[in-house]
Write a structure and sequence with these properties.
It contains nine helices and 13 strands. With 264 residues, it is an alpha+beta fold. It starts with a helix and ends with a strand.
Length: 264
């Protein structure tokens, strides 16, 4: 086990309000207090596999994503009834987000092998769904969705509905001396790309280009001239370098309202 990587994982978990104690090759983790505290035994073999399968240059971002996957699972209180809720009860509580595969691996490690519901978005980026429950959050799992007999499209459509309403108040600002604009005033802006063309249909043209370098960033230009796209790439790559919540440096456009990676 990479001792430095393990120390960084422990610190990343504590940032997420997860306290841990190492016993042999296991981390005993707890989030919360009293009868609602969520306890998990994390097998460090899964963490080691995640770390060893990523480039050394992205180690800190990988650890951060893995820890957030663990913490998201542990945000659901013990004895939560939400795991047995049907589709009708969960539909109005669904909020989507975009994460990397390291997040998904952390979530699997914390859940005892029950993978999160996820849909591929682009390369290493995946869409997940979080339920806002009475106490905390629940990461929607593939097992729960399969139990409903619901299709991926139906689940994503339900999650997009609340996201659509939450995005109507989005604002943006111009980055000084560039044609690039940046969404502001909200968190988890990258996933708003799923509904941006629907919410702001009058502002979205066929030559708009955007980037989502981190979970919280959404940059765009209104026209795909070479100068504009280069400025967008610069903003995207800079934001990716400065953040540990990285997603992708790809450039996207919209096709029939849906995000699609484009070559530039």
């Amino acid at each position: 086990m990479n001792v430095d990587a393990l120390a960084k994982l422990v610190e990343a978990l504590r940032v997420e309000k997860v306290e841990v104690e190492q016993i042999a090759n296991t981390l005993n983790a707890v989030r919360g207090t009293g009868p609602f505290a969520h306890h998990v035994n994390l097998d460090l073999d899964s963490f080691e596999t995640t770390v060893n399968s990523r480039p050394e240059a992205s180690l800190d971002a990988t650890i951060r994503a893995f820890a957030r996957g663990v913490a998201t699972v542990m945000s659901e209180p013990a004895r939560s009834p939400a795991r047995s809720w049907d589709f009708a009860r969960t539909a109005s509580r669904m909020v989507p987000n975009l994460v990397t595969s390291a997040f998904l691996e952390g979530a699997v490690a914390a859940s005892g092998g029950d993978p999160a519901f996820s849909v591929p978005f682009h390369e290493d980026v995946h869409l997940i769904v979080v339920l806002h429950i009475d106490r905390g959050l629940r990461l929607l799992t593939r097992g729960q969705v399969d139990g409903w007999g619901a299709t991926n499209d139906r689940v994503v459509a339900a999650a997009r509905s609340l996201l659509f309403h939450n995005t109507r108040d989005a604002r943006w600002e111009s980055i000084a001396d560039t044609p690039v604009r940046r969404m502001i005033g909200m968190e988890q802006n990258a996933v708003r790309s799923l509904v941006f063309a629907d919410v702001f249909y009058s502002d979205v043209g066929p030559r708009m280009r955007f980037g989502i370098p981190t979970e919280d960033e959404f940059f765009f230009v209104e026209d795909d001239t070479a100068e504009n796209v280069q400025a967008l790439k610069t903003a995207v790559e800079s934001a990716s370098t400065e953040s540990l919540d990285r997603l992708t440096t790809a450039i996207f456009g919209f096709e029939s309202g849906h995000p699609i990676a484009v070559e530039h």
